[in-house]
Design a protein that fits this description.
The structure is a single chain. The protein is of the alpha/beta class. It folds into 2 domains: 4-96 and 172-257, P-loop containing nucleotide triphosphate hydrolases (Rossmann fold, 3-Layer(aba) Sandwich); 264-350, ACT domain (Alpha-Beta Plaits, 2-Layer Sandwich), CATH 3.30.70. The protein is 36% helix and 28% strand. The strands form 3 sheets. A 6-stranded mixed sheet has the order 6-7-8-3-9-10, with helices on both faces. Strands 2-1-4-5 form a 4-stranded antiparallel sheet, covered by helices on one side. Strands 12-13-11-14 form a 4-stranded antiparallel sheet, sandwiched between helices. Strand 4 (72-77) and strand 5 form a beta hairpin. It is elongated. The protein starts with a strand and ends in a 12-residue tail after the last strand. The relative contact order is 0.11. The structure holds adenosine-5'-triphosphate (ATP). Adenosine-5'-triphosphate is lined by residues 15, 31, 33, 51, 53-59. Adenosine-5'-triphosphate binds next to strand 2 and helix 1.
Amino acid sequence: MSQPIISFRDAVKEFPGRGGRRRARRSAPAVRAVDGVTLDIAAGEIFGVIGYSGAGKSTLVRLVNALETTTAGSVVVDGTDLTGLSEARLRPVRAGIGMIFQQFNLLRSRTVAGNVAYPLEVAGWSRTDRDARVAELLAFVGIADKAAAYPSALSGGQKQRVGIARALATNPKILLADEATSALDPETTADVLALLQRVNRELGITVVVITHEMEVVRSICHRVAVMERGRVVELGDAYRVFSAPQQPVTRRFVASALRDQPSPAVLDRLRGRHPGRIVTVRVDEVSGSSAQVMEVLADRGVHGTIVYGGITEVAERPYGSLTLELSGDDAAVHAALAGLRAVTSVVDHGTAALPVTEGSDR
Ligand SMILES: Nc1ncnc2c1ncn2[C@@H]1O[C@H](COP(=O)(O)OP(=O)(O)OP(=O)(O)O)[C@@H](O)[C@H]1O
């Protein structure tokens, strides 16, 4: 991994318990929103933090721009340990970090250009430099024609483009995106994610995305941390983590992104409709490719019909499973099953007459 630009070391953030409603009641215990996180985010990567609501994702990124301070442990950003720093010392660190939000947080009384110019005004840029920079940023995010519009006249996707232009205004090294696409429809989400990818590739900015949507991680993240109850429960290359999920929470995210695994009810219908043997085979770089699967069937003289499944991409690499009906004489089907098991992971569902319930390995 290249040089880390953000390092968490045993980082803990505890919030005091909210007092009970009555004095007589004991107050609620403290909440450990971040519970001992050790994590390095490399300069130049798109790093995803995924977890369900309340997992601690927002608190974790708020430690990066010092909107929250650690209760214990440390956070180092671009070589500066934030622990115990004064507001004055934190200012230059914050200046190197841009942030975008789910609700965009635009100033309603300012035009698009005025919103993007705002951080430049705060940083003391001259009028001429500001105008040039705003024009450059609006062109980069693809809304140059909206410079004079007010936020109320923009779609959600356009508002987030303004948010991104504003976050990039003062040339940060890091962009934090907190649920930046959660308020957008799928098509607009894809456009905004593609823009974040350009921010990363063309400007070399490290992007940290916080999300509860597997789709976001699947489409743009190089590496990912899966969070649950304040802890990082899985961490690594996005493809590795999602092609071999170890934790139940990670498996739930994988299942949500790709409805490729037939449910028990679907399996009953498939077995009813197709007399052959029903099997589900994994198709990815770690297990086997669909070409290998088809080759095994051809070698054994077994006919394979795809009856269910889906293949998508995680981190731009193939990933998914196919459910096949295998038809042929018993010995050939047995040989084909053994051959498939040699090239990928296989779940045998049997036939309508002899159904098999094997645990899925995912
Ligand atoms: N200022 C605060 N005071 C008290 N508790 C807090 C505070 N901020 C967060 N928490 C608690 O910390 C835990 C983690 O919250 P956090 O917002 O970081 O989670 P999250 O994964 O970002 O979820 P969400 O997407 O719902 O915001 C939750 O139990 C939350 O109630």
